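FAQ
Q: What does a multi-component entry look like?
A: The components come first, one per line:
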Amino acid sequence: MFKKILIANRGEIALRIIRTCREMGVKTVAVYSEADKHSLHVRFADEAVCIGPPPGRESYLNIPRIISAAYLTGAEAIHPGYGFLAENAEFSDICTASGFVFIGPDPAMIEAMGDKARAKETMKAAGVPVVMGSEGIITNIEDAKAVANEIGFPVIIKAVAGGGGRGMRIVHEAADLEQQIQTAQTEALTAFNNAGVYIEKYIDRPRHIEIQIFGDNHGTVVHYGERECSIQRRHQKLLEESPSPVVTEAIRTAMGAAAVKGAASVGYSGAGTIEFLLDKDSKFYFMEMNTRIQVEHCVTEQVIGIDLIRQQLHVAAGGKIAKKPQRLEGHAIECRINAEDPMKDFRPSPGVITSFHAPGGYGVRLDSHVYSGYTIPPYYDSMIAKLIAFGSNREEAIDRMRSALDEMIVEGVATTIPFHRALMRDKRFRDGDFDTHFLETFDWKTV
Ligand code: ADP
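Then the predicted structure of the entire assembly, as tokens:
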């Protein structure tokens, strides 16, 4: 095992990784921007190096500064967390070329799966069902029209480099297609520095179901069941749970096998997530792969009893993972607590947390880097905590989450807590009767 690793990230995920490292006796190096001097990841790491001013490109996205910090502190490996450089093939390559172990997949695997259009081709070649659509990126408008007419409207235009719910446009009529493609390309170029877009069938009222997979460097790839992430706002996840209320053992087996087959086809190593859309006829289609640990990994940890961060370190250090299938036990739910004002269309609400009380008790977990007196900087994403509740079944997990949310206090900034409180009391949510459009008709203020 490594003696010392550097964590190229911030916030709750940096703290999450530090916690596991402390347990394992692995020393940690935190890197931080000037805006994060008082962050808990800086306080709890064994060493901390300031890598620059607040904007991401001058700190958490600045590869030379991160590599220098690793040299200076004598770290052996680098954990990228999620976001920032986690899915950057060049970063994975530079870490390795500089003599550090990258705790994640090789550049070739990130490349095969990181670009959404290429990932679809990779999965299709492995025999995994994918959403119908254009083969690769759109290069010619006439071809795009032909594809759209063949698969039928509505279609969705997606940026190959998109992420976090951005870079997608739904087109309902043939007459709008050409103009929408041009707008999407211009937007993608500005937002992601990559104008590539592709088309796929817009699936009617699907559920977002994803499979957690894990591979080692000895040829084993396994899956750890599914997470349901259909509770979304503008294609961004707000709540995740495992297992899904609608995934039967038969669907889990088929989806798990497809996910493993796809990942194994590129010799995948490390933690990864294969995202699918499940339609009303219980047919599922590959959508994209994330070649990193995800925000919502905690719900899987609770139902399979494995620390996924520990396993990432174990695999990166050359260890093997168990081949035996993992049983899901009980039910876990995660609510993303964001510093956003649900009364004001979820507008970010940075500022000082004047008072903070963390809920606790049996079956409750809070992953958070904030505390009373902490200032939420305006530069990064607005997630301030992940509240996770687990129980022997879904109903128990929901009731436990409701109670934990009622106990949680965050003052000084607006948060998504009132929204989640209403959700836990909503009949349709409690019945598991929802899809990715749930939020369009859910009025949390009236619950
Ligand atoms: P991102 O990488 O930005 O998270 P995804 O490809 O994971 O984007 O898609 C995010 C969400 O957008 C999905 O969970 C789903 O709600 C919606 N979505 C994406 N593709 C389709 C599609 N073909 N049909 C219907 N909904 C879709």
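Q: Is there any commentary attached?
A: Sometimes. For this entry: Residues 206 and 280 are 7 Å apart (CA to CA).
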